[in-house]
Design brief:
By secondary structure, the chain is mainly alpha-helical. 68% of the residues lie in helices and 3% in strands. It is built from 17 helices and three strands. The model has no long low-confidence stretch (mean pLDDT 83).
């Protein structure tokens, strides 16, 4: 509410203002919860594939009937209301992933089944990426945590971590320094092994592969990324050293982050109070009611209020994981881990982005950011799991 007003006298039900629309969505959410809880728990498992297919069709329809907002074709315009299918695709994909993994014929050790599962996750992610919604696409990385929990080979985790390290080192220190660092690591690995016969060729092959990956990352960064994406990475890795360019970036791409950090720091320990934040009411932070809403929390409620919000999210995620682990039904357990991972990625990226800890990626903070689609999607996601958990007694 305070993130979307400017200090003037307001009518909470003014449908021309974001807070008026959001309140209507909040009231309607209670009816949505009642519907979700009234449906038989087995429905969500039985019709997971159909829900997923409907979600894919809704994403495809955007290329024909979609409405462009801020450069992304991610919304359907219905009267004065917009609906974002990518938000609903997250829980639909969670249902599909849980359905496929819990199938008795699925073997996650099998390359064939791994590829099928990758297709289930990658298809909506690719469609969303083609709509120029990078933030929502990144969220699909959350399913990696689920696959790892369900027993996918550890080598995939090692590969992902290695690729991330190579990417960061290449962009931060350059190709030569990256090869030197990883070369030393490979030598130490070789020296620590007892059986060395034939392994020198394997390590040499690994070194060549790292070199190819490093060169590929640099070329991708230079030739494939858009200027604003490069700028965000440069800011995150502190690559830009030119004072003049840094000042220019502060007035352009860095403006949101600078104002967000100022708003958070101005809140101090206890904050300025509800609707008393000068930067909030002055609308200094663009998108402060959506992606940057945590800056409003920081200014109005200070460190204590911000820490409380972080604690609430951490406890929610831990509680979902605890309940997921207690499920007797394999489908319910996997679905629980899916939504816990999605909440974790949203929460971590959004707050990290607002505080400048990670590159700017436009995704909402669950149950805080403005948007009816996001509110309803997170509600559906969470309360389906609550319904599944409530039904576990009947599964004995």
């Amino acid at each position: 509410m305070s993130a979307s007003h400017s200090g003037e006298v307001i009518s909470y039900f003014d449908m021309n203002e974001p807070y008026g629309k959001q309140l209507i969505f909040i009231f309607l959410t209670f009816g949505l919860i009642a519907v979700i809880l009234s449906i038989e728990a087995k429905f969500y498992e039985r019709f997971a594939s159909i829900i997923y297919l409907a979600s894919i069709i809704s994403l495809l329809g955007l290329f024909i009937f979609g409405k462009e907002v801020n450069g992304a074709i991610s919304w359907y315009g219905i009267g004065g209301i917009t609906i974002q299918p990518s938000e609903f695709a997250k829980f639909a994909t969670s249902l599909a992933v849980a359905k496929y993994i819990s199938d008795l014929e699925t073997n996650l050790k099998s390359i064939k089944d791994q590829l099928k599962l990758l297709l289930i996750i990658a298809l909506p992610a690719l469609l969303i990426l083609l709509q120029n919604d990078t933030g929502s696409t990144v969220v699909y990385a959350a399913f990696f945590f689920v696959l790892y929990r369900e027993g996918i080979q550890q080598i995939y985790l090692i590969i992902v971590i290695t690729l991330l390290l190579i990417s960061v080192f290449t962009l931060k220190f350059g190709i030569i320094a990256t090869l030197l660092i990883f070369g030393i690591v490979l030598i130490l690995v070789y020296a620590s092994r007892r059986k060395k016969r034939g392994q020198i060729l394997q390590l040499f092959g690994a070194f060549v592969l790292i070199a190819v990956i490093s060169v590929g990352i640099q070329q991708f960064y230079k030739n494939m990324l858009k200027p604003h994406q490069k700028d965000r990475i440069e800011l995150w890795l502190r690559l830009e050293k030119d004072p003049q360019k840094l000042e220019e970036m502060k007035r352009t791409i860095l403006y949101n982050l600078n104002e967000s950090e100022k708003a958070i720091s101005s809140g101090g320990l206890s904050g300025k109070g509800f609707m008393e934040g000068t930067r909030t009411t002055g609308k200094f932070v663009p998108e402060q009611h959506t992606d940057y809403i945590f800056s409003t929390v920081g200014e109005e409620w200070g460190f204590f209020g911000s820490a409380f919000v972080v604690l609430i999210f951490v406890l929610l995620i831990i509680r979902i994981l605890f309940l997921a682990e207690a499920q007797k039904n394999h489908f319910s357990r996997v679905y629980g881990y899916c939504i816990a991972s999605i909440f974790f990625v949203h929460f971590t990226i959004n707050i990290g982005m607002v505080m400048g800890l990670i590159p700017t990626i436009g995704i909402p903070l669950p149950f805080f950011s403005y948007g009816g689609s996001g509110l309803w999607a997170f509600t559906i996601m969470l309360f389906i799991f609550i319904k599944l958990d409530a039904n576990k007694i009947n599964e004995w």
